[in-house]
């Protein structure tokens, strides 16, 4: 595959991973891949289709949108997922069309505003993942739609408590029901800046 654009690094499960846009030499489509995988493989998976039709499913594995679909299912269906208590554990479900078929979800997403850098959002926070209750929004807007929305006042309180030296990230994350990553970003003024 031919490198088109370096997208920089992202934190994936606590590891920094470099991503890029590549042009597939098989189907000539532009695809997003981890830098190391894009440099290693010759195609996005389309050649697997032509060489081995029996094993080909959808060609989405490794794509950002496929990860959105996979993580959405994990939050709803996997009691061991860290987000389950806030999603599946609260009774939120995914419509059967999306649960069972990535292609249906992908086609809906591409027809309803999905772009690189946007996240899936449930319009009604207590509603389900289904076409009439979902859209795509920037991360900043999606974070503000959460039940545990952080305000500037709470962000300043988190900074104050951190500066006392009596708290660690995990304690603050538990206290305010947010991820430790968000606590770190608040403390370092990367989000909710003073």
**What is the 3D shape?**
globular
User: How far from one another are the termini?
Assistant: 44 Å
Secondary-structure element order, N to C? EEEHHHHHEEHHHH
Kindly report the average pLDDT value.
81
Low-confidence stretches at least 5 residues in length (pLDDT < 50)? 48-56
Verbal overview:
This protein has 194 residues and is of the alpha+beta class. The chain has three domains: 2-55, no CATH class; 64-144, no CATH class; 152-187. The protein is 39% helix and 18% strand. The chain is built from nine helices and five strands. The protein has helices spanning 35-40, 46-51, 64-77, 96-100, 102-111, 139-144, 152-163, 169-176, 180-187; strands at residues 2-12, 15-23, 30-34, 118-122, 134-138. A three-stranded antiparallel β-sheet has the order 1-2-3. Strands 4-5 form a two-stranded antiparallel ribbon. Strand 2 and strand 3 form a beta hairpin. The radius of gyration is 19 Å and the shape is globular. The termini are far apart. The model is unreliable at 48-56 (pLDDT under 50).
Question: Key terms for this structure?
Answer:
single chain, 194 residues, alpha+beta, 3 domains, three-stranded antiparallel beta sheet, two-stranded antiparallel ribbon, 9 helices
């Amino acid at each position: 595959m031919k490198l088109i654009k370096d997208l920089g690094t992202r934190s994936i499960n606590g590891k920094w991973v470099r991503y890029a846009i590549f042009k597939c030499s098989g189907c000539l489509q532009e695809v997003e891949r981890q830098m190391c995988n894009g440099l290693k493989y010759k195609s996005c998976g389309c050649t697997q289709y032509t060489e081995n039709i029996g094993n080909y499913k959808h060609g989405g594995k490794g794509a950002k949108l496929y990860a959105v679909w996979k993580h959405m299912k994990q939050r709803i269906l996997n009691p061991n997922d860290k987000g389950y208590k806030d999603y599946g554990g609260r009774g939120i479900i995914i419509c059967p069309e999306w649960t069972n078929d990535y292609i249906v979800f992908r086609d809906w997403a591409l027809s309803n505003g999905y772009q690189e850098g946007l996240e899936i959002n449930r319009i009604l926070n207590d509603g389900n993942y289904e076409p009439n209750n979902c859209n795509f929004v920037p991360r900043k807007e999606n974070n503000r739609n959460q039940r545990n929305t952080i305000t500037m006042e709470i962000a300043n309180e988190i900074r104050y408590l951190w500066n006392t030296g009596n708290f660690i990230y995990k304690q603050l994350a538990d206290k305010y029901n947010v991820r430790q990553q968000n606590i770190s970003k608040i403390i370092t003024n990367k989000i909710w800046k003073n």
